[in-house]
Sequence to fold (228 residues):
Amino acid sequence: MSGRNFVHVLALRVDPAWRRQSRETRGADCEALLEAARQAAERVTTYTYSMVGTRTDVDVLFWRLGASLEDLEETASQLLCSGVGKWCTISHSMIGLVRPSKYVKERTPQEEAMFTGDRSQYLIVYPFVKTTEWYLMPEDEQRRQMSEHIRVGRRYPMIQQLLAYSFGLDDQEFIVAYETDDLGAFQDLVRDLRGTEGRLATVRDVPQLVGVHRPLADIMALIGGPEA
Fold:
C-alpha cells in the first residue's frame, strides 16, 4: 500500500430537506458531487458505502486511503462543497495511520485484501479504545492475549480486517475495520472475540458503522436523487 498510509472514515448525513428540492436541482446536485468525487479519487483512494435507512445519523460512508493528511483534508472539502455535499452534516470522522503491527511480522492475506482486489459487500468499521491498564501490562502478557485474538480472527478467512492507529491523531486509539460478504459469519467472529481475555481491556468500540458497498451514483439514487 505504498503511498496510502492514512485512513479516513467519513460518514455523512444528508439533510432530509434536500429530498424535497425539485428534480432538476437534485439532478444537478448529484452530478456536482459525483464530479467532485471523481476528482478527489485522483488523489485519494475512495470506496463508498450506503447506510440509507439503517442508522439515523448516516446516509453515506466514504472509506478513504491517502498519502497525507492534507490530501484527505482538501478532498473532503471538495466533497462537502459540491452539490449534495453542501446539504451534508459530518456525523462521524476518524483518522488513522496504517503501521506494522508489533504482534505479527507481516500482514496476512486477510489484511492485504483491504487494499487490493474487489471490495466485499459489507464494511464494518468502528473506533476502539483500550484501558490504561493494558498499556501498563508487561509486553509478554500483551503479546499472549493478542495471540489469542489473532488466532480467533484467522478462523474466519472469509472476513478481511484492518487495524489503523489513531492515537495522537484522533479521539479514539484505533480504527477497526472488517470486510465481508457474510454478516452472519461476522457476528460469529464478534461472539468468539468477546470470549477472549483481551476483551477485558476494551473501553469503547462504538459506534458500529455497517455499510453496503455501492457506487456513489447508486447511493445518491437511494438517498433521493432523480433516478430514485
Observations:
- The beta strands are 6-14, 45-50, 60-66, 88-97, 122-130, 160-165, 174-180, 202-204, 209-213.
- The domain at 6-97+211-223 is CATH 3.30.70.1030 (Alpha-Beta Plaits).
- The chain has two domains: 6-97+211-223, 109-210.
